[in-house]
Amino acid sequence: MLDVQGLGIRFGGNQAVQDVTASIPAGQITAIIGPNGAGKSTFFNLISGFYQPTSGKIVFLGEDITPLKTHQVVARGIARTFQTTTIYRELSVLENAMIGHRVRTKAGLLDALLRTGREKRDDQESRAGAMRALERVGLATQANRPAGALTQEGQKRVGIAMALSSDPKLLLLDEPAAGMNPEETVNLMALIRELVAGGLTIALVEHKMSLVMGLADQILVLHHGQKISQGTPGEVSRDPAVIEAYLGSHAHGGQMGQSTQGADHA
Ligand SMILES: Nc1ncnc2c1ncn2[C@@H]1O[C@H](COP(=O)(O)OP(=O)(O)O)[C@@H](O)[C@H]1O
Ligand SMILES: [Mg+2]
């Protein structure tokens, strides 16, 4: 579904992502893991058009989307959530999802908040799209509650609904389980499985190894901006290069090797 070839970006002297060639197959869950600062979020920022790569190519459904801006990428069918979800706590769950729809379609965030003329025209379409997204994440009955009144898990679901409201084919989730307790994490895993069963393709960045190992069809491992491994959870966790990268990292030392002992952390 998505192929990146030789993808790279440099910030000054820092090569944050370097020569990454990888694919995200349709209908599957791809996990992107790696120590802190490995380039995982930057990889998502490149795919979603937030950053322009300094080298390489991004092909989505046969189309070269490398030069496209965020809203154009969204229009092609790629949506994302952010590592730190920004929801509008005082607005209703539905309004949040509608903002997600507008920001991701025609109008910008400012328009969305100010309700200009164009917004009124888009209103019905946004409402319908937002309601469909809320149904998919199990929040339809909470649509009129203030988003800030929801649990941490509920607020994460709002963030996912905001991304789903543009009806993407590929959804990128950046650390969706961060800050979640084990029960919430299990619920989130069930939601991700449901979304994929419904036809969505998902790529996610996540530190919680129980989630990664329990969900991913394939794992891509980044280290210092480079892809050091790609394969099934079993293949990747046995890969000496991966074990060494994790053992050598102070931030996540030994986590891969200890995944069966539940070495989760946020
Ligand atoms: N906008 C930016 N400007 C400069 N450096 C950046 C920017 N975004 C990311 N980086 C750098 O890229 C590297 C990878 O960061 P990131 O992708 O956030 O890592 P990860 O998500 O794997 O923890 C880090 O060294 C980070 O400082
Ligand atoms: Mg990150």
Between the first and last Cα atoms, what is the distance in angstroms?
29 Å
What kind of sheet is the major sheet?
6 strands, mixed
Tally the helices: what do you get?
A: 10
Shape: globular
Helix content: 25-40%
DSSP E strands, number: 10
Q: CATH class of the largest domain, please?
A: Alpha Beta
Side by side, the strands of the main sheet go 6-7-8-3-9-10
Q: What ligands does this structure carry?
A: adenosine-5'-diphosphate, magnesium ion
Low-confidence stretches: 251-266
The overall number of domains is 2
Question: Can you write the helix and strand succession as a string?
Answer: EEEHEEHEHHHHEHEHEEHH
Write a brief structural summary.
By secondary structure, the protein is α/β, with parallel strands linked by helices.
Q: What would your notes on this structure say?
A:
- With 266 residues, this protein is of the alpha/beta class.
- It folds into 2 domains: 1-69 and 183-189 and 202-266, P-loop containing nucleotide triphosphate hydrolases (Rossmann fold, 3-Layer(aba) Sandwich), CATH 3.40.50; 78-167, Rossmann fold (3-Layer(aba) Sandwich), CATH 3.40.50.
- 39% of the residues lie in helices and 22% in strands.
- The protein has 10 helices and 10 strands.
- It has helices spanning 40-47, 70-76, 93-104, 109-114, 117-136, 152-164, 182-197, 209-215, 233-238, 240-247, and strands at 2-11, 14-24, 29-33, 55-60, 63-64, 78-80, 170-174, 201-205, 218-223, 226-231.
- The strands form 2 sheets. It has a 6-stranded mixed beta sheet, sandwiched between helices. A 4-stranded antiparallel beta sheet has the order 2-1-4-5, with helices on one face.
- It starts with a strand and ends in a 19-residue tail after the last helix.
- Mean pLDDT is 86; it is low at 251-266.
- Residues 40-41, 83 line the site of magnesium ion.
- Pfam families: ABC_tran (PF00005), BCA_ABC_TP_C (PF12399).
- It comes from Deinococcus antarcticus.
